[in-house]
Specification:
Chains A, B: Belongs to the TRAFAC class TrmE-Era-EngA-EngB-Septin-like GTPase superfamily. Septin GTPase family. Chains A, B: Its main location: cytoplasm. Chains A, B: GO terms for molecular function: GTP binding. Chains A, B: This is Septin. Chains A, B: One of its GO terms (biological process) is cell division. The structure is a homodimer. By secondary structure, chain A is an alpha/beta fold. Chain A has a domain at about 30-320: P-loop containing nucleotide triphosphate hydrolases (Rossmann fold). Chain A contains 12 helices and 10 strands. Chain A has helices at about 5-15, 30-45, 60-65, 80-85, 125-145, 170-180, 200-215, 230-240, 280-290, 295-330, 350-370, 410-415; strands spanning about 45-55, 90-100, 100-110, 155-160, 185-190, 245, 255, 260-265, 270-275, 385. A 6-stranded mixed beta sheet of chain A has the order 2-3-1-4-5-6, with helices on both faces. In chain A, strands 7-8-9 form a 3-stranded antiparallel beta sheet, with no helix packed on it. In chain A, helix 9 crosses helix 10 and helix 10 packs antiparallel against helix 11 (about 350-370). The longest helix of chain A is centred in the C-terminal third of the chain and has 38 residues, at about 295-330. Chain A is globular and about 85 Å long. The relative contact order of chain A is 0.08. At the A-B interface, helix 1, helix 2, strand 2, strand 3 and helix 5 of A face helix 1, helix 2, strand 2, strand 3 and helix 5 of B. Strand 2 of chain A pairs antiparallel with strand 10 of chain B, so a sheet runs across the interface.
Amino acid sequence: MENSSTNSRFRSSLFNHDDEDQDKEYVGFATLPNQVHRKSVKKGFDFTLMVAGESGLGKSTLVNSLFLTDLYKDRKLLNAEERITQTVEITKHTVDIEEKGVKLKLTIVDTPGFGDAVNNTECWKSVADYIDQQFEQYFRDESGLNRKNIQDNRVHCCLYFISPFGHGLRPLDVEFMKALHEKVNIVPVLAKADTLTPSEVKKKKFKIREEIEQYGIKIYQFPDCDSDEDEEFKQQDQELKDSIPFAVIGSNTVVEAKGRRVRGRLYPWGIVEVENSAHCDFVKLRNMLVRTHMQDLKDVTRETHYENYRAHCIQSMTRMVVKERNRNKLTRESGTDFPIPTGPGLADTETEKLIREKDEEVRHRAEHGHGHDHQHGHDLNNEHVHEHNHGHDHEHEHGHEQHQDPHVEHEAHSEHHPPYPEGS
Amino acid sequence: MENSSTNSRFRSSLFNHDDEDQDKEYVGFATLPNQVHRKSVKKGFDFTLMVAGESGLGKSTLVNSLFLTDLYKDRKLLNAEERITQTVEITKHTVDIEEKGVKLKLTIVDTPGFGDAVNNTECWKSVADYIDQQFEQYFRDESGLNRKNIQDNRVHCCLYFISPFGHGLRPLDVEFMKALHEKVNIVPVLAKADTLTPSEVKKKKFKIREEIEQYGIKIYQFPDCDSDEDEEFKQQDQELKDSIPFAVIGSNTVVEAKGRRVRGRLYPWGIVEVENSAHCDFVKLRNMLVRTHMQDLKDVTRETHYENYRAHCIQSMTRMVVKERNRNKLTRESGTDFPIPTGPGLADTETEKLIREKDEEVRHRAEHGHGHDHQHGHDLNNEHVHEHNHGHDHEHEHGHEQHQDPHVEHEAHSEHHPPYPEGS
């Protein structure tokens, strides 16, 4: 309920500076997070969730249950023959939903339920390609001239559905997750958990976690707790981490259980309640995905997976330019003054070093989580830490000539200062 | 006092999902702004403020008064001869301050008080260059391979000090502001306002606003109010807009006025209280700069001034590459396959069109404010607006070949798909 009075709260924080705020020691920049909060509400949010795994594991039902919306209104169930073609397509559903004044543009990327095909070799390929294509589009857009209305279709999370009937992971699961784990945040779920008893769930989860470790699969790592969090928070965080893979049950049906109307499944032996945490991890998954970690999933996508993709692209471009230049050297002399993003010196040493570092970082995250990576660049000392950057002081001399105003003389400007970096 | 319990508030919003939250119609993404809030606190903030204007107008004193810190501890006052050299330098002071758990890395960029030199021709040049250099550095950094720890030195706001003794603006003021107004958010202040009576302040403000309009100077425009704000909010917002240029008085001295200890100036005829809104606009300026509009100043810098600079850079690069290619055509045939950011087709038509649009946009903002520009891309309908993007559906076919996995075969990948845009 913390958002119900967003507007009035901000209105008061923005203008009604009462006597308290006239406090001699209070400047007022403590309102910065509120300014950010307010702007984010105004702008609205977006989130792209991919679902993958064998067909028939209840992917669509779970998504509908998670977001209390019918994303697949128009879907028709296909017969066996049609299903062979159905599996080759990746489809995208977008829905604008609003809750307590917060707008979310939710996109669900539905991948072919790959168990359906007879030959599943490289079934992960089209999914991996899809993710790369979204990165590529974003790379083009953010390298372009007009970046005002870039549509960001990068995939923030992939819910990977594991069959409750396998003995742990199936070879296809391993292959699929390994093909994707450096491109997207994978969150494994144990599907249709109402076919397993609590002790079976426990054993199966343990087995799957063990195999994930054993096969070197890097699933999404929850960020570490801050050390200043209280014990209760830390315990809940640990519980969340121990719930992987989340055992889930989906249902779009409301049934009556002990006088309450709940979403669930009515069996002759009892009622399975989707949102009862004694029955499955549905609520835990939804809380993680929506209420606590949605922003982190977006941040990791942007800061790690996308940056990874981008670094690989730049590396290959650089290699190509170097090759081209070497070719040019045979025909003419002055082929070295192109303003390309990365200079020739970088090509085989610096670039590769950086990419190795990035790979290392991804590995590190997978092993140790990444919660603290977001926190950097700020001195932890309390107040008035003077940092007179004398290295940077006096960095400017009056009347120097080499830097031209780009508004005045474009050609001259860029010939003196190629705006893309050449050496760093 | 809205931030005093930041941690506990978030802790409870992140994990304690009580019965209220089990509401059947509540998914939970309304916590997204809180996730953003929380992350912003964790990461910390930075802000770069530039002060400019004639020397002797109390720039340093005002900055110290604004942030309740002594940024100029080490500064020595210079004699007349020294001052001639002093004025040619731009200096930068950084201080880490913390308030209610919110960390701010504040950078003050101090520009030469230009009235000191005998010849002030192009005195704005070094300041304009400084701003461009920060943009250029950022452009290099964000075009580089490792973008993890980019230090952002872009100038978010320039407080421009106007002398209380001029009859409105001086020619130098006009020249200076016009040279900078497309690069930085200019906030004009009427300095040392304790030398003017209230009616003089009123007349001088009116004159200055008139001249700003008349000379086509585009100062920072406060974003428009949302139409759903209440009347009180709208009135305060209008008052803020009518206060331009803020009449300010700085003081680092605490004096006793009617039994209270206040920051002020003790005259034989009375005490000028810096934070008394009947005496000057200091509190209004501080509220605007720090408590209400700091994030907007950063956003406009990033979205308008920097994007403007970047577009000009890319345009000049493109022109250069086209020239180079034309030169190449004379010597060899196959010179057209470089993966440059913007393709040749763009050079003189698309690029320039986009830059014209950007210029138009800046003009539009200056004329109409820009408050609503941040809000786009989200449907305003309430819930469950289905948007089955059938244009984008089925966008993927199984087993197609043209997109290579960049992890596997870099050279092939980039030769099929130059990752930089060639046509958009």
